[in-house]
Design brief:
Shape: globular
Helix content: 25-40%
Number of helices: 13
Order of helices and strands: EHEHHEHHHEHEHEHHEEEHEHH
Strand content: 5-15%
Strand order of the largest sheet: 1-2-3-4-5-6-7-10
CATH class: Alpha Beta
Low-confidence stretches: none
CATH superfamily: Divalent-metal-dependent TIM barrel enzymes
Mean pLDDT: 96
Number of domains: 1
Distance between the termini: 36 Å
């Protein structure tokens, strides 16, 4: 068994234009002061990283690694959540997702998609230069508007959606394979990969690509009322990344898992800061340890109630207290006899 690494924190929800959130050195120092030893970096934020330069220059990446190390943290992974979303966009979301792209690409879906693919390829090479083993992204979505089957879906509508999704992602997965980096899809509502069934379908369309892997975030399963512990049992071979994020679901006579268009604070299912929700993290950390997960436990702060600074400070302690330092020997080794093949055969009646 292996001990999970951490605590680490995803910087996306904190990055801003004022110190200490305005640069990588400042954020590395801030994270370290809160007790983190790792940071997950959003690759779209030029205040934190120049993705193109990272893809082209190993020297630049060495400088970044040295800089973060000086502050007592290391980069755990890069993220292309926003760029990945733009690999596949249903027309209903075109205008809303335009904000994820550079200004000159807005209103140009084809050019925007080509830019997103290039961004993913840059991220693969940057991850290699940073000597990272995994990367996180979103799958994007063609079929999400048709999640509920009314009106009845046309024959093969979902098949065609996943075939095209697989066609678009297969070359990107090949790029990550060439870089020696796993591409982990965050299983997330709003994406075509939002549960185990849809991930399996995507695997089929990418010919079970060896780099197609999972970022596990149990909060998104609570909001879908999906068994987040059994998910680990079913898909542990694919889980390469872990977002530690809490959530709660409060059954209501007024709204269900769809949320009734309510704001986050009023929805039956909502994200919470670590320790304030319903997720059994002791069970999660135990399962991941038993299945030899050796990646990072990365705090992703999202809460409708608590201040982010408080969530970040409490999150480091929460993760540190939940990481299981795995044992190197069995608890009853003190009473164990020495191996004796001939004695075994006698005990089993074989000789």
């Amino acid at each position: 068994m292996k001990t999970i690494k951490g605590p680490a924190i995803f910087l996306a929800q904190f990055a801003g234009d004022t110190p200490p959130f305005d640069s990588l050195p400042h954020m590395a120092s801030w994270a370290s002061a809160h007790g983190y030893i790792g940071i997950q970096v959003p690759s779209w934020d030029a205040r934190l990283i120049d993705l193109r330069l990272a893809a082209e220059s190993s020297t630049y990446c060495d400088e970044i690694k040295g800089l973060t190390s000086e502050h007592g943290v290391e980069i755990t992974e890069l993220s292309t959540h926003l760029q990945g979303q733009l690999v596949a966009v249903h027309p209903a979301y075109d205008e809303l997702f335009d904000g994820f792209a550079p200004q000159h690409l807005r209103g140009k879906p084809s050019a925007r998609q080509a830019w997103a693919v290039e961004q993913l390829c840059l991220a693969a090479r940057a991850s290699r230069h940073l000597k990272l083993s995994a990367h996180v992204t979103f799958s994007g979505a063609f079929a999400w508007p048709y999640l509920y089957p009314w009106p009845q879906r046309l024959p093969r509508l979902i098949d065609d959606a996943f075939e095209e999704l697989g066609r678009r992602w297969k070359p990107i997965l090949d790029e990550f394979d060439g870089a020696g980096v796993d591409l982990c899809y965050e299983i997330h509502p709003g994406e075509d990969l939002h549960d185990g069934v849809t991930f399996e379908r995507f695997l089929e369309e990418t010919y079970h690509h060896r780099r197609a892997r999972i970022l596990y975030d149990p909060s998104h399963f609570v909001l879908q009322q999906l068994d987040y512990l059994q998910f680990i049992d079913l898909y542990h071979d694919f889980i390469r990344m872990f977002h530690v994020k809490d959530a709660e679901y409060r059954p209501s006579g007024r709204a269900g898992v769809y949320g009734g268009y309510l704001p986050w604070v009023d929805r039956p299912g909502r994200f919470r800061s670590l320790g304030d929700g319903q997720i059994d993290f002791k069970a999660i950390f135990s399962k991941l340890a038993a299945y030899d997960f050796s990646g990072w436990a990365v705090v992703e702060w999202e809460c409708a109630l608590k201040h982010p600074e408080d969530g970040a400070r409490e999150g480091a302690r929460f993760v540190r207290e939940h990481i299981i330092r795995v044992t190197e020997r069995a608890f009853d080794d003190f009473a164990g006899p020495q191996a004796n093949p001939s004695q075994n055969r006698r005990i089993l009646g074989m000789s």
